[in-house]
Design a protein that fits this description.
single chain, mainly alpha, 3 helices, 2 strands, about 5% strand
Amino acid sequence: MVKSRVHDLAAEFGVPVEQVMGMLREMNIIVRSHLSALEPDQVAAARVRWEREKRKAAEAPARRCGCKVKA
C-alpha cells in the first residue's frame, strides 16, 4: 500500500505545505518535512479535520452579518 505524504495532502487541499504541517502538529501527528509519510488513519483524520475547519470558516461570515444560509 502506498502511503500518502504531507505534500500530497497539501495539493489535495489546495493550500501551502506549511499550513498542513501546522494542522498535523496541532493534531499531535509528528511530521518533519513535506516528504513525511502518513499512515492511512492519519490521512483520514486530517481530511475530517480539514473538512470541519472549512465548513466552520464558511459559516462564520454568515453568522457575523446575521444572514440566513439556506442548506
